[in-house]
Amino acid sequence: xxxxxxxxxxxxxxxxxxxxxxxxxxxxxxxxxxxxxxxxxxxxxxxxxxxxxxxxxxxxxxxxxxxxxxxxxxxxxxxxxxx
Length: 83
Known about the structure:
- The two termini are 14 Å apart.
- The protein is globular.
- The protein has helices spanning 22-25, 29-41, 73-81; strands at residues 2-6, 9-12, 16-21, 44-46, 54-60, 63-69.
- It has one domain (2-81).
- By secondary structure, the protein is an alpha+beta fold.
- The protein has 3 helices and 6 strands, in the order βββααβββα.
- The mean pLDDT is 93.
């Protein structure tokens, strides 16, 4: 199955490693450091036009990718669960 993240970006469910809420995770230094390192390495793609609410860590073709999206983690989980 496919998940729409925003700005015409679709990923498959099996590519997802983790789904994280930006407000909760960026409080911790380790999360901020991870996002900064991913940004520096060019692994971050912004797929939102509004205030970002979450980020999704994926692995596509053996390469790690982080998508910043305006979709809330609860909405993403509902989509995955088919509700």
